[in-house]
Amino acid sequence: MASPSDRPYAIPDFEADDAVRAKYQATARELVNLAVARGVEAARLEYQALYLQLLAAVNEADAAQRAAGAAAHRARAQYATVVPRQRTESGIVRPPTFFFDVIISMGAAEKFYKDAVATARAKDRADEAARVAHANLERIMNKGEAAVVVRELEIRRHFKTPQGRSELDADERLHGLALQCDEIDAERLDFQQRLAAGVVSDEELRDRTMAQEGSRFLDGDVRGLTALRERDARFGKLRYFTFRDREGRMWLFDYADDLRLLLGLTFDVVYANDRYLVARSPGDGLRQPAPRRAARLPGLDPRAYVGVDPLLVRAIVDFVGRERTEPI
Length: 328
Hints:
The protein is α+β, with helices and mostly antiparallel strands and 328 residues long.
């Protein structure tokens, strides 16, 4: 069986993968926001329709209340023409007496009394109907925005469920990105499983970590390199110096005990005429302000899978040799 170091491996382009994920998230947010906008507009229309319906019911109930009040007033006034004043004072309809009211009015008092009682009861029913209509309208007043907020929360909560996420992923504007994200997730899961099983080589772990962090093998023209004393990069049996340049970019170089002199120097690497020149940076020994944050190198390292150029290794070894023999 081949050892982990013998197995071929591929390093993902984490920057490109992050761009895919970012585009997926942005598109998903856009689709959710569109759904929210449609839902909110529907909620507003529903509220407006309900408001108009209840307002019409209030107007109808008010009209019926006025009509019932007028009818009750007319019936009470008519009854008052045939009975003494105390029978209808304070708006209360009292029954007629048999002798003084019924007989003297020749039976009209009894009829007018029944009419007055019927219209008064009709007025009570109309008053209650108007009260209920006004209460219903008042109950939803100023609740339109609350209904909109509730609808928005319901829609956003829905798209966080597996069903809602599936609906988003099925949209033609998101489907392709969703498939790419699934492939990325599958690759990440496969790596974690291989890492847990101990079948990831030190070289793959190194190259993958460097690609993910945006660091590179030391190469080309780099100025103001300073070693991070507290941060040696270790990947199993592999060990590297970690340098930060003046732009905040991170570089790795093969560790060796006889090169520890680099930990106290600030130096430049220049590539010219097919050779590397390594020398102290101007102002070496002066305190240099550290960048606010590490700068990520874009794309994949052109020296991934390969490591530091042997010519550069030789140039740095020679530089350290010169520094040992020259006064600091």
